[in-house]
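User: I've been trying to design a sequence by hand for this structure and keep getting stuck. Would you show me what you'd pick, starting by listing the structure so we're on the same page?

Assistant: Good idea, let's start from the same input. This is the structure you sent:
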Protein backbone atom coordinates (compact mmCIF):
# COMPACT_ATOMS: atom_id res chain seq x y z
CA UNK A 1 0.00 0.00 0.00
CA UNK A 2 1.24 3.55 -0.79
CA UNK A 3 -1.05 5.75 1.25
CA UNK A 4 0.89 8.96 0.74
CA UNK A 5 1.51 8.42 -2.95
CA UNK A 6 5.28 8.18 -2.51
CA UNK A 7 5.74 4.50 -1.80
CA UNK A 8 6.68 5.18 1.84
CA UNK A 9 4.73 5.17 5.06
CA UNK A 10 4.16 8.40 6.93
CA UNK A 11 6.23 8.88 10.09
CA UNK A 12 6.21 12.47 11.37
CA UNK A 13 3.13 14.58 12.03
CA UNK A 14 4.44 17.36 9.78
CA UNK A 15 4.67 14.86 6.93
CA UNK A 16 1.09 13.64 7.17
CA UNK A 17 -0.90 14.13 3.98
CA UNK A 18 -3.91 16.39 3.73
CA UNK A 19 -6.28 13.43 4.07
CA UNK A 20 -5.10 12.90 7.66
CA UNK A 21 -6.21 16.38 8.66
CA UNK A 22 -9.47 15.98 6.76
CA UNK A 23 -10.14 12.86 8.80
CA UNK A 24 -9.36 14.80 11.97
CA UNK A 25 -11.91 17.45 10.98
CA UNK A 26 -14.56 14.85 10.11
CA UNK A 27 -14.02 12.98 13.37
CA UNK A 28 -14.10 16.19 15.41
CA UNK A 29 -17.43 17.29 13.92
CA UNK A 30 -18.99 13.83 14.16
CA UNK A 31 -18.05 13.30 17.80
CA UNK A 32 -19.16 16.80 18.75
CA UNK A 33 -22.59 16.08 17.24
CA UNK A 34 -22.75 12.72 19.03
CA UNK A 35 -21.91 14.21 22.42
CA UNK A 36 -24.52 16.99 22.34
CA UNK A 37 -27.08 14.60 23.90
CA UNK A 38 -24.71 12.99 26.43
CA UNK A 39 -25.98 14.98 29.40
CA UNK A 40 -29.70 14.40 28.85
CA UNK A 41 -30.32 11.32 26.66
CA UNK A 42 -31.58 8.96 29.42
CA UNK A 43 -33.51 11.86 30.98
CA UNK A 44 -35.21 12.61 27.64
CA UNK A 45 -35.94 8.90 27.15
CA UNK A 46 -37.42 8.74 30.63
CA UNK A 47 -39.72 11.66 29.73
CA UNK A 48 -40.94 9.78 26.64
CA UNK A 49 -41.34 6.55 28.61
CA UNK A 50 -42.18 7.42 32.25
CA UNK A 51 -42.29 3.72 33.14
CA UNK A 52 -38.53 3.61 32.54
CA UNK A 53 -38.75 0.18 30.90
CA UNK A 54 -37.27 1.30 27.58
CA UNK A 55 -34.73 3.85 28.86
CA UNK A 56 -31.90 1.33 28.79
CA UNK A 57 -32.81 0.28 25.26
CA UNK A 58 -32.63 3.89 24.02
CA UNK A 59 -28.96 3.87 24.99
CA UNK A 60 -28.24 0.29 23.91
CA UNK A 61 -30.02 0.68 20.55
CA UNK A 62 -26.89 2.55 19.45
CA UNK A 63 -25.10 -0.81 19.45
CA UNK A 64 -27.77 -3.31 18.38
CA UNK A 65 -27.37 -3.07 14.61
CA UNK A 66 -23.61 -2.65 14.98
CA UNK A 67 -23.25 -6.08 16.58
CA UNK A 68 -24.07 -7.75 13.26
CA UNK A 69 -22.13 -5.35 11.01
CA UNK A 70 -18.76 -4.70 12.66
CA UNK A 71 -16.99 -7.90 11.62
CA UNK A 72 -18.39 -8.08 8.06
CA UNK A 73 -17.60 -4.40 7.54
CA UNK A 74 -14.06 -4.95 8.81
CA UNK A 75 -13.47 -7.69 6.26
CA UNK A 76 -15.12 -5.61 3.51
CA UNK A 77 -12.88 -2.72 4.44
CA UNK A 78 -9.84 -4.92 3.77
CA UNK A 79 -11.26 -6.04 0.43
CA UNK A 80 -13.05 -2.96 -0.93
CA UNK A 81 -11.23 -0.06 0.68
CA UNK A 82 -11.81 2.29 3.60
CA UNK A 83 -13.49 5.26 1.90
CA UNK A 84 -16.67 3.59 0.68
CA UNK A 85 -17.70 2.27 4.09
CA UNK A 86 -16.60 5.48 5.79
CA UNK A 87 -18.84 7.66 3.60
CA UNK A 88 -21.80 5.26 3.87
CA UNK A 89 -21.41 5.30 7.64
CA UNK A 90 -21.53 9.09 7.79
CA UNK A 91 -24.65 9.07 5.60
CA UNK A 92 -26.44 6.65 7.92
CA UNK A 93 -25.40 8.68 10.97
CA UNK A 94 -26.89 11.79 9.36
CA UNK A 95 -30.25 10.10 8.80
CA UNK A 96 -30.24 8.69 12.34
CA UNK A 97 -29.63 12.11 13.88
CA UNK A 98 -32.50 13.55 11.82
CA UNK A 99 -34.87 10.83 13.09
CA UNK A 100 -33.90 11.59 16.71
CA UNK A 101 -34.66 15.28 16.15
CA UNK A 102 -38.18 14.31 15.01
CA UNK A 103 -38.81 11.76 17.79
CA UNK A 104 -42.12 12.23 19.59
CA UNK A 105 -42.15 8.67 20.94
CA UNK A 106 -39.52 6.53 22.59
CA UNK A 107 -39.78 3.98 19.73
CA UNK A 108 -38.74 6.48 17.05
CA UNK A 109 -35.90 7.59 19.30
CA UNK A 110 -34.74 3.97 19.57
CA UNK A 111 -34.82 3.48 15.79
CA UNK A 112 -32.98 6.74 15.17
CA UNK A 113 -30.33 5.83 17.71
CA UNK A 114 -29.88 2.38 16.14
CA UNK A 115 -29.35 3.84 12.67
CA UNK A 116 -27.04 6.56 14.02
CA UNK A 117 -25.00 3.96 15.89
CA UNK A 118 -24.66 1.75 12.81
CA UNK A 119 -23.36 4.69 10.81
CA UNK A 120 -20.76 5.65 13.38
CA UNK A 121 -19.62 2.01 13.57
CA UNK A 122 -18.85 1.95 9.86
CA UNK A 123 -17.07 5.29 10.14
CA UNK A 124 -14.90 4.55 13.18
CA UNK A 125 -13.89 1.06 12.04
CA UNK A 126 -12.79 2.28 8.59
CA UNK A 127 -11.29 5.43 10.02
CA UNK A 128 -9.20 3.64 12.65
CA UNK A 129 -7.90 1.10 10.12
CA UNK A 130 -7.00 3.92 7.74
CA UNK A 131 -5.04 5.86 10.37
CA UNK A 132 -3.10 2.74 11.37
CA UNK A 133 -2.44 2.00 7.68
CA UNK A 134 -0.85 5.42 7.24
CA UNK A 135 1.95 5.16 9.81
CA UNK A 136 4.85 2.92 10.75
CA UNK A 137 4.63 0.79 13.95
CA UNK A 138 6.93 3.12 15.89
CA UNK A 139 4.55 6.05 15.43
CA UNK A 140 1.14 4.38 15.62
CA UNK A 141 0.52 5.19 19.26
CA UNK A 142 1.25 8.88 18.73
CA UNK A 143 -0.70 9.11 15.48
CA UNK A 144 -3.81 7.41 16.82
CA UNK A 145 -3.54 9.20 20.16
CA UNK A 146 -3.34 12.61 18.50
CA UNK A 147 -6.25 11.80 16.24
CA UNK A 148 -8.44 10.52 19.07
CA UNK A 149 -7.46 13.47 21.22
CA UNK A 150 -8.87 15.83 18.60
CA UNK A 151 -12.07 13.79 18.48
CA UNK A 152 -12.41 14.02 22.24
CA UNK A 153 -12.07 17.79 22.04
CA UNK A 154 -15.29 17.66 20.03
CA UNK A 155 -16.88 15.60 22.81
CA UNK A 156 -15.48 17.99 25.43
CA UNK A 157 -17.21 20.88 23.71
CA UNK A 158 -20.41 19.05 22.79
CA UNK A 159 -21.54 17.75 26.21
CA UNK A 160 -21.81 21.11 28.03
CA UNK A 161 -23.11 22.91 24.92
CA UNK A 162 -25.82 20.29 24.53
CA UNK A 163 -26.69 20.45 28.22
CA UNK A 164 -27.07 24.22 28.26
CA UNK A 165 -28.94 24.32 24.94
CA UNK A 166 -31.37 21.63 26.10
CA UNK A 167 -32.39 23.89 28.96
CA UNK A 168 -33.04 26.76 26.54
CA UNK A 169 -34.41 25.31 23.30
CA UNK A 170 -35.37 21.75 24.23
CA UNK A 171 -34.06 18.24 23.61
CA UNK A 172 -35.28 17.78 20.03
CA UNK A 173 -33.73 21.05 18.84
CA UNK A 174 -30.36 19.90 20.17
CA UNK A 175 -30.70 16.78 18.01
CA UNK A 176 -31.42 19.09 15.06
CA UNK A 177 -28.08 20.82 15.64
CA UNK A 178 -26.40 17.40 15.77
CA UNK A 179 -27.99 16.56 12.40
CA UNK A 180 -26.57 19.74 10.86
CA UNK A 181 -23.07 19.05 12.21
CA UNK A 182 -22.99 15.44 11.01
CA UNK A 183 -24.30 16.46 7.60
CA UNK A 184 -21.27 18.77 7.41
CA UNK A 185 -18.87 15.93 8.25
CA UNK A 186 -20.48 13.76 5.57
CA UNK A 187 -19.95 16.54 3.02
CA UNK A 188 -16.26 16.91 3.87
CA UNK A 189 -15.63 13.15 3.54
CA UNK A 190 -17.65 12.82 0.35
CA UNK A 191 -15.73 15.49 -1.58
CA UNK A 192 -12.27 14.59 -0.21
CA UNK A 193 -9.84 13.83 -3.04
CA UNK A 194 -7.38 12.29 -0.60
CA UNK A 195 -9.88 9.67 0.53
CA UNK A 196 -10.60 8.75 -3.09
CA UNK A 197 -6.89 8.09 -3.65
CA UNK A 198 -6.62 5.92 -0.54
CA UNK A 199 -9.59 3.90 -1.73
CA UNK A 200 -7.74 2.86 -4.89
CA UNK A 201 -4.79 1.54 -2.89
CA UNK A 202 -6.76 -0.39 -0.26
CA UNK A 203 -8.75 -2.20 -2.96
CA UNK A 204 -5.61 -4.28 -3.50
CA UNK A 205 -5.44 -5.71 0.04
CA UNK A 206 -5.81 -9.36 0.90
CA UNK A 207 -9.16 -11.13 0.67
CA UNK A 208 -8.53 -13.82 3.25
CA UNK A 209 -11.71 -15.62 4.33
CA UNK A 210 -13.86 -14.59 7.29
CA UNK A 211 -13.06 -17.82 9.16
CA UNK A 212 -9.45 -16.65 9.48
CA UNK A 213 -10.64 -13.61 11.40
CA UNK A 214 -12.92 -15.71 13.62
CA UNK A 215 -10.02 -18.02 14.46
CA UNK A 216 -8.26 -15.09 16.18
CA UNK A 217 -10.47 -15.72 19.23
CA UNK A 218 -8.24 -18.73 19.88
CA UNK A 219 -5.27 -16.47 20.55
CA UNK A 220 -4.98 -15.62 24.26
CA UNK A 221 -3.58 -12.13 23.64
CA UNK A 222 -6.31 -11.15 21.18
CA UNK A 223 -9.03 -12.77 23.30
CA UNK A 224 -8.03 -10.68 26.32
CA UNK A 225 -8.20 -7.61 24.12
CA UNK A 226 -11.71 -8.55 22.99
CA UNK A 227 -12.86 -9.23 26.56
CA UNK A 228 -11.44 -5.89 27.66
CA UNK A 229 -13.27 -4.18 24.82
CA UNK A 230 -16.55 -5.83 25.85
CA UNK A 231 -16.12 -5.01 29.54
CA UNK A 232 -15.23 -1.37 29.09
CA UNK A 233 -18.15 -0.66 26.76
CA UNK A 234 -20.48 -2.69 29.00
CA UNK A 235 -19.56 -0.30 31.81
CA UNK A 236 -19.30 2.84 29.70
CA UNK A 237 -22.81 2.56 28.33
CA UNK A 238 -24.38 0.85 31.32
CA UNK A 239 -22.98 3.12 34.03
CA UNK A 240 -21.47 6.25 32.53
CA UNK A 241 -24.10 6.90 29.86
CA UNK A 242 -27.20 5.54 31.65
CA UNK A 243 -26.95 5.15 35.43
CA UNK A 244 -24.65 8.12 36.08
CA UNK A 245 -26.86 10.85 34.52
CA UNK A 246 -29.94 9.42 36.27
CA UNK A 247 -28.04 9.17 39.57
CA UNK A 248 -26.85 12.77 39.30
CA UNK A 249 -30.26 14.08 38.25
CA UNK A 250 -32.63 12.00 40.41
CA UNK A 251 -30.58 11.32 43.55
CA UNK A 252 -28.30 14.37 43.71
CA UNK A 253 -30.81 16.80 42.06
CA UNK A 254 -28.26 18.13 39.55
CA UNK A 255 -29.48 19.95 36.44
CA UNK A 256 -28.61 18.81 32.93
CA UNK A 257 -26.30 21.84 32.67
CA UNK A 258 -24.19 20.63 35.62
CA UNK A 259 -24.28 17.05 34.33
CA UNK A 260 -22.98 18.37 31.01
CA UNK A 261 -20.04 20.00 32.80
CA UNK A 262 -19.16 16.73 34.56
CA UNK A 263 -19.36 14.87 31.24
CA UNK A 264 -17.17 17.52 29.67
CA UNK A 265 -14.49 17.13 32.34
CA UNK A 266 -14.54 13.38 31.76
CA UNK A 267 -13.81 14.09 28.12
CA UNK A 268 -11.05 16.54 29.07
CA UNK A 269 -9.41 13.72 31.01
CA UNK A 270 -9.74 11.55 27.91
CA UNK A 271 -8.06 14.20 25.79
CA UNK A 272 -5.09 14.68 28.12
CA UNK A 273 -4.55 10.95 28.59
CA UNK A 274 -5.11 9.94 24.97
CA UNK A 275 -2.54 12.35 23.59
CA UNK A 276 0.10 11.68 26.28
CA UNK A 277 -0.46 7.92 26.67
CA UNK A 278 0.08 7.33 22.96
CA UNK A 279 3.64 8.61 23.36
CA UNK A 280 4.28 6.62 26.56
CA UNK A 281 2.70 3.53 25.04
CA UNK A 282 5.28 3.62 22.22
CA UNK A 283 8.08 3.95 24.79
CA UNK A 284 7.01 1.83 27.77
CA UNK A 285 4.72 -0.76 26.19
CA UNK A 286 1.01 -1.24 25.69
CA UNK A 287 0.15 -3.46 28.65
CA UNK A 288 1.50 -1.23 31.46
CA UNK A 289 -0.60 1.68 30.16
CA UNK A 290 -3.71 -0.51 29.92
CA UNK A 291 -3.31 -1.89 33.45
CA UNK A 292 -2.72 1.54 34.97
CA UNK A 293 -5.69 2.97 33.09
CA UNK A 294 -8.01 0.19 34.27
CA UNK A 295 -6.98 0.80 37.87
CA UNK A 296 -7.58 4.55 37.66
CA UNK A 297 -10.93 4.05 35.95
CA UNK A 298 -12.10 1.48 38.51
CA UNK A 299 -11.20 3.67 41.49
CA UNK A 300 -13.00 6.61 39.90
CA UNK A 301 -16.20 4.65 39.34
CA UNK A 302 -16.28 3.67 43.00
CA UNK A 303 -15.71 7.28 44.07
CA UNK A 304 -18.76 8.45 42.13
CA UNK A 305 -20.98 6.79 44.73
CA UNK A 306 -18.91 7.94 47.73
CA UNK A 307 -18.54 11.68 46.94
CA UNK A 308 -22.06 13.02 46.31
CA UNK A 309 -21.09 16.70 45.90
CA UNK A 310 -20.39 18.73 42.77
CA UNK A 311 -16.82 19.85 43.47
CA UNK A 312 -15.31 16.39 44.15
CA UNK A 313 -17.39 14.89 41.33
CA UNK A 314 -15.79 17.32 38.89
CA UNK A 315 -12.36 15.95 39.85
CA UNK A 316 -13.58 12.34 39.79
CA UNK A 317 -15.04 12.90 36.34
CA UNK A 318 -11.69 14.14 35.05
CA UNK A 319 -9.85 11.25 36.73
CA UNK A 320 -12.24 8.65 35.31
CA UNK A 321 -11.87 10.10 31.82
CA UNK A 322 -8.08 10.13 32.20
CA UNK A 323 -8.06 6.41 33.08
CA UNK A 324 -10.25 5.57 30.11
CA UNK A 325 -8.02 7.60 27.78
CA UNK A 326 -4.92 5.74 28.95
CA UNK A 327 -6.50 2.46 27.88
CA UNK A 328 -8.08 3.40 24.58
CA UNK A 329 -5.09 4.09 22.36
CA UNK A 330 -2.87 1.35 23.79
CA UNK A 331 -5.58 -1.29 23.54
CA UNK A 332 -6.30 -0.62 19.87
CA UNK A 333 -2.62 -0.54 18.91
CA UNK A 334 -2.02 -3.76 20.89
CA UNK A 335 -4.83 -5.38 18.92
CA UNK A 336 -3.57 -4.09 15.58
CA UNK A 337 -0.03 -5.29 16.20
CA UNK A 338 -1.22 -8.73 17.30
CA UNK A 339 -3.44 -9.31 14.26
CA UNK A 340 -1.91 -11.05 11.20
CA UNK A 341 -1.19 -8.96 8.12
CA UNK A 342 -4.12 -8.92 5.72
CA UNK A 343 -6.64 -9.28 8.55
CA UNK A 344 -6.16 -5.89 10.20
CA UNK A 345 -9.58 -4.59 9.24
CA UNK A 346 -11.22 -7.86 10.19
CA UNK A 347 -9.44 -7.87 13.54
CA UNK A 348 -10.68 -4.37 14.26
CA UNK A 349 -14.14 -5.51 13.24
CA UNK A 350 -13.98 -8.38 15.76
CA UNK A 351 -12.77 -5.98 18.45
CA UNK A 352 -15.64 -3.60 17.75
CA UNK A 353 -18.16 -6.46 17.69
CA UNK A 354 -17.25 -7.37 21.27
CA UNK A 355 -17.42 -3.68 22.12
CA UNK A 356 -20.89 -3.36 20.62
CA UNK A 357 -22.23 -6.40 22.43
CA UNK A 358 -21.06 -4.82 25.67
CA UNK A 359 -22.67 -1.52 24.72
CA UNK A 360 -25.95 -3.25 23.90
CA UNK A 361 -26.35 -5.38 27.03
CA UNK A 362 -24.80 -2.88 29.45
CA UNK A 363 -27.64 -0.31 29.75
CA UNK A 364 -30.51 -2.77 30.44
CA UNK A 365 -28.36 -4.83 32.85
CA UNK A 366 -27.21 -1.81 34.85
CA UNK A 367 -30.69 -0.25 34.75
CA UNK A 368 -31.96 -3.47 36.33
CA UNK A 369 -29.30 -3.26 39.04
CA UNK A 370 -29.95 0.45 39.53
CA UNK A 371 -33.72 -0.02 39.83
CA UNK A 372 -33.62 -3.04 42.12
CA UNK A 373 -30.50 -2.51 44.27
CA UNK A 374 -29.58 1.16 43.88
CA UNK A 375 -26.74 3.19 42.42
CA UNK A 376 -24.07 1.97 44.88
CA UNK A 377 -24.50 -1.63 43.73
CA UNK A 378 -24.19 -0.56 40.08
CA UNK A 379 -20.96 1.37 40.66
CA UNK A 380 -19.49 -1.43 42.81
CA UNK A 381 -20.26 -4.08 40.19
CA UNK A 382 -18.57 -1.99 37.49
CA UNK A 383 -15.48 -1.56 39.67
CA UNK A 384 -15.24 -5.32 40.20
CA UNK A 385 -15.38 -5.98 36.45
CA UNK A 386 -12.49 -3.58 35.81
CA UNK A 387 -10.45 -5.25 38.56
CA UNK A 388 -10.96 -8.61 36.86
CA UNK A 389 -9.73 -7.12 33.58
CA UNK A 390 -6.53 -5.96 35.28
CA UNK A 391 -5.82 -9.59 36.19
CA UNK A 392 -6.56 -10.82 32.66
CA UNK A 393 -4.32 -8.25 30.99
CA UNK A 394 -1.46 -9.00 33.40
CA UNK A 395 -1.47 -12.72 32.53
CA UNK A 396 1.24 -13.44 29.91
CA UNK A 397 0.12 -14.44 26.42
CA UNK A 398 -0.14 -18.19 25.92
CA UNK A 399 0.28 -17.96 22.20
CA UNK A 400 2.26 -15.50 20.17
CA UNK A 401 0.62 -14.41 16.92
CA UNK A 402 3.02 -13.71 14.10
CA UNK A 403 2.50 -10.43 12.27
Amino acid sequence: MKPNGTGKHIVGLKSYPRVYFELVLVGFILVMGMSLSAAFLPIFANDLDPSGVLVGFVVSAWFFSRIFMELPSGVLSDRLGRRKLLVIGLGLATVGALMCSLASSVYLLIVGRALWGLGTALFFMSNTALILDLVEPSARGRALGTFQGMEFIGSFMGAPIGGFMAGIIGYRQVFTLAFILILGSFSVAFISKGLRQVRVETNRESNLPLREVLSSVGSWGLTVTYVNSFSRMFIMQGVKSTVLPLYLNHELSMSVELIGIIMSLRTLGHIVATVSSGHFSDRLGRKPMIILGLAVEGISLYLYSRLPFLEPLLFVGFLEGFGGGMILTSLIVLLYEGTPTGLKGGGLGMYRTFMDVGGFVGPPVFMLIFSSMGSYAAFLFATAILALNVVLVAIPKRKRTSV
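That's my pick for every position. To get oriented when you compare it with your attempt: The first helix runs from residue 18 to 35. The radius of gyration is 20 Å.
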